[in-house]
Amino acid sequence: MADPTRMIPRSWLFVPADAPNKLAKAKGSGADALILDLEDSVALAAKDQARALAAQTLAGPRGGPELWVRVNPLATGLTLADLAAIMPGAPDGIALPKPDSVADVITLSHYLDAFEAASGLAPGSTRILAIATETAASVFNLGGYAAAGPRLAALTWGAEDLPAAVGATHNRTPEGVLNDLCRIARSLCIAGAASAGVPAIDTVFPDFRDEAGLRAWAEAGRRDGFTGVMAIHPAQVPIINEVMTPSEADIAAAREIVALFEANPGAGVVALNGKMLDMPHLKQARKTLSRLPPG
Ligand code: COA
Ligand code: MG
User: Fold this and answer.
1) Domain that holds residue 265
2) Cα(71)–Cα(58) distance, rounded to whole angstroms?
3) Does ligand 1 lie within 6 Å of residue 233's CB atom?
4) pLDDT of 50-87, one tens digit each?
5) The CATH number of the domain where 107 resides is what?
6) How far apart are the CA of 294 and the centre of ligand 1, in A?
């Protein structure tokens, strides 16, 4: 279970860690978190350069976006060298791609125990974002993340690697709708995150010139239960931040519902403006208010 007093980022901007100009630009993007990528956006020959630049970025000024690092998957054998390079810089968290199940998160957590001790960091200070739907096996294991332990900050999903893993030629139907396997993975990510007591973060919207498409994507994500979205381009950040921040109207409505139940402490059900409200509505209202920054 994640620490509920910590705000979870709304926007998570991927930055290929071998690209100095992008690293510089990303810091001013307004993203709540950057994901310095050592995995898929970095060619094998450039891994060392990316590790060094990620370490340099972590050593620079902090206080802007949270700095997370996407390491290479455990099965590649590259993960320990990634962690050795970046853990002295105290990243806010690690994005773990392609876990087959919670067991991989637990393994990473043990690695972090050791690297935190070696770098003099507070035990447990490094959080984990699991990209939990990228292998065929992973889809069957999305209900297991409650066993991850306190480092798990959120679950997210991916719409590219899973279709590739099962031999699909496309991840969308000819009409442009995500295929069934992706839709199942997306839904199980939402339920898996909730059952583990952590937020669910929606995957990237790859067409980075299509602002209306991104807005619709993020709005659908918010309706379905995601509290943040990953981005691949700085232009996507303001839209995600806007959509994932509860609006004045959302906040006012949530406050009204909470106040009504507080005024009727014995009631399981109340009426507001001709509509029935019961426990799920109260829960939803409290969730909306919990997404506000403290203060
Ligand atoms: N982070 C920081 N800066 C970025 C960026 C990102 N993710 N994506 C683009 N930029 C920068 C560009 O370098 C460019 O900077 P410049 O004005 O100094 O030249 C500026 O923003 C405008 O970029 P643009 O020309 O619109 O896009 P592009 O063709 O340079 O880049 C991508 C397109 C897709 C290659 C790039 O957005 C990218 O690398 N995205 C991240 C990919 C990734 O990490 N994938 C893995 C997770 S799915
Ligand atoms: Mg990938």
Assistant:
1) 249-290
2) 14
3) yes
4) 999 999 999 999 999 999 999 999 999 999 999 999 99
5) 3.20.20.60
6) 32
